[in-house]
Amino acid sequence: MNCLRKRLFLSDDLKSIYDTQLFKSTPITIIWFDENIDEDLNDQLQNIHDHIFITTDRPTFLDYIQTMVNEAIVVLSGAISQTVLPIIHDNKQINSIYIFCIQDSKYKYLCDIYSKIDSIHTEYNLLFESLEKNIKLIMKQQISLNLFDQSGQSTQDLTRESSEFLWYQLLREYIMKMVQTNDTKKVMLEKFRLYYRTNKTYLSKVDEFEQTYITNDAIKWYTKGTFLFKIVNKALRAQDIEALLAVRYYVVDLCKCLKEECENFRDYSEDVIQVYRGQTLSDLELDRLKNSIGQLISTNGFLSTTRSLDIASLFATNTIFMINIKTQLEGVVFADVRSHRETPHEEEILFDLATIFKILEVEYDDSNKSI
């Protein structure tokens, strides 16, 4: 897959894009089912994620599982897990399952039976740490691919997927042309506080952002995986134009910082570098990729990759993207963000919003059983 110089741009007319409720998307929920719940559990979970569902009632839990439409992480008590796992395990919306108990050895055998069990914990701190890491990983994985069918003769002939491909190109051009003012920042902060009005932990982080943020720190705030990372990616995935306009002050800063870092990188980098991204794709998505050799492809967000194949393999279930970057190619914006990360060993290369690639080939690796 190669980076392309071309960026598609149609017009400044966004009137046809639907209006939506601010930050409407709920990409993943932590569901906690235990007959005995600590009173402060809700506050503790709110420190790591803003969408949680806690219940001590079995029918309520099962009804929620059966009717949910978004992805979920489930936490079960040890005693409950033995009877509940056979019922819920195959639900496609469940990403992973954790067991919280007093004696982990008593339930380890379940890991051999149920593949979605991530881990078993006896301490809150270790469980919360594992949940937080998993949520960040899932949110990165949820960046979807948009293919562009170049055979279309007009925008009216575009498939829905091709239309979404163009939507992100148009969006980026639009917000980058908008005037940034202090009022733009104030509106953004007001929206943050409204959204997190019941979460003291996140409100304190919003206060910290207001007091300490400068444009040059945009990448650092994004790679920290804080509320900014979550809100920006939620809005992008949902094509939530109202939310994106509300956070454009920060998105524009991030795009500008990536461009500046990219220009600095070109001064000392080799002409071509290879980066990788591990991802989980459905059989349908894999088939579409196989049938799209030579087509253009874009993502619905800022694409995170790594220069380490080993790191990418840790995040991959069945797919690894190998991306060749011609570093001197104008119009392609990416940045080596290691110096901005708390975990520089991941060797992250972050691509700008709506970067366009071209699919050169799709191969099956029999040794790793992956694409």
Give the helices and strands, then pairings.
Layout: E1 2-3, E2 28-33, H1 41-46, E3 52-55, H2 58-67, E4 71-77, H3 78-88, E5 94-100, H4 110-113, E6 117-121, H5 124-141, E7 145-148, H6 160-177, H7 182-195, H8 200-212, H9 218-223, H10 227-238, H11 241-246, H12 248-268, E8 272-279, H13 283-290, E9 296-299, E10 304-306, H14 309-315, E11 319-326, E12 334-336, E13 348-351, E14 356-358
Parallel strand pairs: 2-3, 2-4, 4-5, 5-6
Antiparallel strand pairs: 1-14, 7-9, 8-11, 9-14, 10-13, 12-13
Report on the structure:
42% of the residues lie in helices and 18% in strands. By secondary structure, it is α/β, with parallel strands linked by helices. The longest helix is centred in the last third of the chain and has 21 residues, at 248-268. It folds into two domains: 2-17 and 142-358, Toxin ADP-ribosyltransferase, Chain A, domain 1, CATH 3.90.176; 28-141, Rossmann fold (3-Layer(aba) Sandwich). It has a five-stranded parallel beta sheet, with helices on both faces. A four-stranded antiparallel beta sheet has the order 1-14-9-7. This is NAD(P)(+)--arginine ADP-ribosyltransferase. One of its GO terms (molecular function) is NAD+-protein-arginine ADP-ribosyltransferase activity. It catalyses: L-arginyl-[protein] + NAD(+) = N(omega)-(ADP-D-ribosyl)-L-arginyl-[protein] + nicotinamide + H(+). It holds the Pfam family ART.
Number of domains as seen in the coordinates:
2
- Architecture per CATH nomenclature, i.e. the level-2 architecture of the largest domain: Alpha-Beta Complex
Beta content comes to 15-25%
Helix content: 40-55%
Kindly provide the name of the CATH class of the largest domain. Answer: Alpha Beta
Distance between the termini: 13 Å
Q: What is the strand tally? A: 14
The number of helical runs is 14
Radius of gyration: 22 Å
CATH topology of the largest domain: Toxin ADP-ribosyltransferase, Chain A, domain 1
Nearest-integer average pLDDT: 81
Shape: globular
Strand order of the largest sheet: 3-2-4-5-6
Task: Report the structural category.
Answer: alpha/beta
**SSE succession:** EEHEHEHEHEHEHHHHHHHEHEEHEEEE
Main sheet makeup: 5 strands, parallel
Low-confidence stretches: 2-25, 152-158
